[in-house]
Each structure stands twice: as C-alpha cells, then as structure tokens.
Amino acid sequence: MIRRTISILLAATAFSGCSQMVYVPPGTSVEIALARRAEVTKMPPPPPGSIAASAASTGGAPASPRVRNLNLPAVEPVLPTSDTVTAVAEAFTRGNDALQSGQNDVAINAFQQAVQIDPKFSEAWQKLAMAYEKAGKPDKAKDAYRHSKEFVQQ
Q1: Alpha helix locations (H) across the chain?
Q2: Rounded to whole angstroms, how far apart are CA atoms 82 and 42?
Q3: Cβ(53)–Cβ(42) under 8 Å?
Q4: Among residues 136, 119, 130, which one has the least CA distance to residue 35?
Q5: Which residues form the domain of 97?
Q6: Does the pTM of the predicted model rise above 0.90?
Q7: Which of 38, 70, 108, 113 has the most CB atoms less than 10 A away?
Q8: 6-33, pLDDT tens digit by residue?
Q9: What is the CATH number of the domain that holds 145?
Q10: d(CA 101, CA 134)
C-alpha cells in the first residue's frame, strides 16, 4: 500500500509539469547552468494556402491527395560582403583558437572585438561566455549568455 502511494505521488509529480530538473555539472554554479540552458522557441505558423496549413486545419491529413507544383524560383539569401564581416570572422577565429589553446584573456579580447563589431552575433556571445567562465568570471559569463539568448530569439 505504501509503495503504491509513493509511486502515485512520484507519477503525479513527474506529470504535473511543475517540476523542472536541470543537470548542473560539479563545479558549475546553478545560475550559469540556467543561463546556458537553451530556451524553447515557438515556430511561426505556416503561411495560408500552404500544404502544412491545410494539413493543420484538417487535423493532420492534407486537404487533398494531390501535390501542388508552384514552380517558384529558388530564393538565395543576399550575403553581406564587407570589411566588417571579414573583421568579425577573423576576430571570432582568433578567439576560437585562443580558447582551445587555453589563452582565456586573448580569447576574451577577440570575442569582445567580434561582438563589438556585430552585437547580434549570438555564437560569439556564447564563446565569450565560455571564455569568461574558464577565466573565473561567472558574473560576466551570465551576462554574455543572456546576450546570446537575446539575439537567438530575434
């Protein structure tokens, strides 16, 4: 009887959605682990008239078994080609190399330069946070992780 009660309580706790578990490796602060955790983002709804939109409105089944061929040209993104992109890439590469070789101060300077040129470069913010964490600066690491999440969700 007691085992059944305990198992019911454990199941109720697990399925209630109120509990949230985050693994924190030994030697890492909980605040940094929570700052590093990826957030769930909601996907935008499909455009009206698309096959996915008609499938969603009919409960998962496509509205008709026929497939539409719209013959639209492929859309290629316009890639920026400027000196700032090159400067950001060089600073980011320099920071990665320094971070891998254990030169945390050099990595911090390089990643700071990268995010100064391109403040929306979320991967540079993440690497900057890692460098701060390795250098023993947890407050700056938390701020950098927050910046990286800020720009990923936009």
Answers
A1: 2-15, 30-36, 51-57, 83-100, 104-117, 122-134, 138-152
A2: 33
A3: no
A4: 130
A5: 83-152
A6: no
A7: 108
A8: 666 555 555 555 455 666 667 777 777 7
A9: 1.25.40.10
A10: 12
